[in-house]
Amino acid sequence: MASLRPLAVIAGVGNGSGTGAAAARLFSKNGYSIALIGRSHGGDSLKKFADELNSSGGNAAPFTIQAYSPDTIKSTFAAIREHFPPSSSALTVAIYNTAFGAWKSFLDVTPEDVQESVNVNITSAFAFSREAILAFKQNEISKDTGKRGTLIFTGATASIRGNVTTSVFSAGKHAKRALSQSLAKEFGKDNIHVAHAIIDGGIITDRTRGYRKDPEWEKDLDRRLDPESIAASYLYLANQDRTAWTWELDLRPAHEKW
Ligand SMILES: NC(=O)c1ccc[n+]([C@@H]2O[C@H](COP(=O)([O-])OP(=O)(O)OC[C@H]3O[C@@H](n4cnc5c(N)ncnc54)[C@H](OP(=O)(O)O)[C@@H]3O)[C@@H](O)[C@H]2O)c1
């Protein structure tokens, strides 16, 4: 175990400007090999992002998928095991950062919206958790932390509170939170740490810059959440030891109204 390099699997990397990418950069800097799971976006953005990590001394590989589904998650973990064999890598961190939302009034919600939320936020999250936990169970208990692995879910305000246009998103986020709590209770006795992070506010990413169009918010460190600061909390979760570990963390900027 001592000679195995730690491996972090991160699902939901997007264009490299959000939380998933910030977590990948930080875990890479901290000595983890990185397996990136993300959709293709019609190009090789995930490969470019892996190249970015590798050019700064990392050991990252892209696993591009067409869409999230339990079968795809299962075959992707098989591909990850081939690329990062358990004989040289120990998968010790898994982050399910992916989310699907449709922000619309309930009467405008389509069956396809609901199906996609179930697919991305629930069934694929179950499949991701299953693969991560099966891998963690192969690990020895770490001498440093007393655990075999850390599984982290990115949540949102909608994980605990529905609102007027969030039925699709909030139902999916509530489900992920419930899943994480059940897993934390079931697998704690195996020294597997499961954590859920409620991100309670707007994260600054290319996507949020695009739709908010609010330069004042972009500049305001009191009101925006930075992906790099969320990533720092994820590293903190991964480094927590078994005598005091967190199931749920909430993160918000200083001036968030809550
Ligand atoms: N942005 C915010 O203001 C905010 C606020 C609170 C909570 N959150 C949560 O924080 C997490 C990270 O979000 P982020 O904004 O920082 O961006 P992010 O890290 O890039 O992560 C979101 C990822 O979810 C995947 N995704 C997005 N739309 C999807 C769709 N329609 N179907 C399937 N997958 C989709 C994308 O991954 P791939 O394209 O790589 O597959 C995307 O990169 C998410 O779980 C989000 O719900 C965000």
From TrEMBL:
Gene3D superfamilies listed in its UniProt record: NAD(P)-binding Rossmann-like Domain
First and last residue of the signal peptide: none
Domain of life (superkingdom): Eukaryota
Transmembrane intervals: none
One Pfam family linked to the record: adh_short_C2
Protein name per its UniProtKB record: Short-chain dehydrogenase/reductase SDR
Phylogenetic placement of the source organism: Eukaryota, Fungi, Dikarya, Basidiomycota, Agaricomycotina
